[in-house]
Each structure stands twice: as C-alpha cells, then as structure tokens.
Protein: GNAT family N-acetyltransferase
Amino acid sequence: MQLIINDRLYLEQTQLAHAAPLFQQIDKSRTHLSEFLPWVPSIASEEDMCTYLLKSIQLIENGLEASFNIFLDGKLQGRIGLHHINMPNRSAAIGYWLGKDGVGKGLILQSCIQLMAYGFNNLKLNRIEIKAALSNFRSQAIPEKLGFKKEGILRQAEFLNGKFIDLQLYALLKEEWDTQ
Structure:
C-alpha cells in the first residue's frame, strides 16, 4: 500500500524489501538518530533490520500497527507509523524518524498529515498521540504545528543513553481534526 502525498513524496507500507536501504539510512545517521531514539544500537546489521521489519509486518497483519517508509524522489528517507493501535479505544500513537539528510525539508510534517488522515478516516481512530523528549524541540514542533494539545509530561518514561528521560505527551482527537 502507498499513501501518496505529492508527486515527490509518498509513504510505502513496511516491507522486507526495504531492509537494505533502511539499514543504510540508519547506519549513516547513527549519531543523529541515537540522540533521541533508544532502539538505534539494536540495529547493528541488515539482518537486525530484517528481524525488526518481520516483527513490524506481523504487527500490521494483527492490526496493531500501520507503518510506512518515507520516500522522497524515490529515495528512502525514514519511517513513520501508527503504533500501539488500540481498536477498542480507537487510539494510536505516531512515531517517526528521518535520516540526517532528510531533516529540515518538511517531510515529517507532510507525512504526519497523510498518516493522520489515514488513521482518522480509514481506521476510524478517535485519538492520536505523539510523544517527544522534552529536549527534542524539533520533534515537539511537529504536533504543535498540527494542532495537537499538550496533555502533560510523562516522567522518566523512556530509558535513553543510560538515563531515564521525560516525554511530552501530545494528542489530537478526531473532532479537533475535523474542525481544522
């Protein structure tokens, strides 16, 4: 499945065939990604990437995730997805990352808009969350630009680089999306 954003930018559903370019993107952006993402050290090889993607595909098949790779001009830039899909409560959380070369081009903002439309309209979600480290101002700017509401701070909610960090919790409801 593809979600077309414009003639240059699209999201393509997670597939094993993307393992090599995903690993290359992570490997060349390791320092950049490790600043805020705890999973980066666990992807040390293309085989690790395959293992991760197989788990992701299983989550998609079980309706617990809707994840995509971000492509600009046919080149893989990163990933985005609706994670922790909870259909009884019609909620999910958006997670995203970009390789260092994709930063600052508006890719995540545009990808989030497309993914939110998919979540609210196709999956019939009522609530979408985004969590961002308190010191990750670039990531916090995304939900703020998209009209998400700050709901609070999740204290010591993530173990990153040897210490616990706080996360800012943002959420947007379907009714708020409909009025934007």
